[in-house]
Amino acid sequence: MKFFQFGGVQRGVVRAFAFIARAWRYAAFVLLMYLAFLLVTMPAARAYALLKERIAPLQLYELEGTAWSGKAALAVAGTQQFQAVAWHFRPWALLLGHTEAALDFVEAGRHTQAIAGRTLGGGIYLRDVETRLPATALENMLNISGTGLDGTLNITLAEVTFADKKLSTVNGVLTWNNAGLVSPKTALGNFVMTLETSGQEIKGVLKDSPGSPLRAEGLLRLKPDGAYQFTGSLSLRDPGRPDLEQALRFFGSPGPGGKVAISTQGMMPLPL
User: Fold this and answer.
1) Measured by CB atoms within 10 angstroms of the end CB, which terminus of the chain is less buried, N or C?
2) pLDDT of residue 265 exceeding 80
């Protein structure tokens, strides 16, 4: 009889502990939801005041919205200034162990959209990056400053990852549309560079679009620290074009076969 009584007490204790465990889980869930609610609804200005020292030297001005989805009229980081900055955190990424936000901003007159994220392991990544640069951004890279390059450089990056503040992966496409010279006004065609990562190597293969007045081929090698080296060549598709022959000389002196060899190297600034 005592044995059955003792067994009943045991079952009662087990049920009590199970109830307490369920109550704690429920309380933890309610607390988590409450904290999430506070985060979602906290004014962006208030959140910035709390985090200002931790995110220095980044400075934000004229904040609107909430910490979860808000805007800043101006963001300053060192010598860089970003206008019309907007962010929206993506809650579903938390299920995959990521903190992720969609970003939208204007810098130096160019509009950029991207999704930025951080993994639980501390890895930083960008994806779905869309931006554009004026063709003049290529002048220093190609060592032809002052020629006045024309057209637009469209940048579409499917994936960019960082490890220890260095590049780890870059996959995407760079397109120089309506390439040309401003003076004398000369159309050169369209050029495409495909960026791919294989193992530890990041490469970019340059080709001209079919029908472009100039033939182009080249290879970009990009190192994790941002150091790059580009080697390539340009040549006339139609040798009977004296205007294009003159334009080609802006890039260098033709060698055997009428090709102009291009070789340049430098450092690409990294966002981190």
Assistant:
1) N
2) yes
- CA atoms of 179 and 154, how far apart (whole Å): 11
Q: Is the pLDDT of residue 87 over 60?
A: yes
State both tokens at 121: 């392991």
pLDDT computed for residue 223 by the predictor: 92
Tens digit of each residue's pLDDT (9 = 90 or more) over 191-202: 999 999 988 889
Q: What 3-state class would DSSP assign to 225?
A: coil
Q: Are 93 and 108 in contact (CB under 8 A)?
A: no
- According to DSSP, the residues that pair with 122 across neighbouring strands are none
Query: Mind listing the pLDDT tens digit for each residue in 54-65?
Result: 888 889 999 999
List the Cα angle 11/17/18 in 5-degree steps: 85
What does the pLDDT average to over 137-145? 74
Residues 164/171/202/235 CA torsion (nearest 10 deg): -150
Count of residues in the chain:
272
Burial classification of residue 9, based on how many CB atoms lie within 10 Å of its CB (0-12 exposed, 13-18 middle, 19 or more buried): exposed
Collapsed DSSP state (helix, strand, coil) of residue 21: helix
Structure-token pair, residue 67: 């910490």
Structure tokens at 39: 């985060």
160 with 129: CB under 8 angstroms? yes
Angle 122-123-128 from CA coordinates, rounded to 5°: 135
Cβ atoms of 68 and 44 within 8 Å: the answer is: no
**What average pLDDT score do residues 167-175 get?**
95
Count other C-beta atoms under 10 Å from residue 198's C-beta: 7
Whole-structure pTM over 0.70, yes or no?
Answer: yes
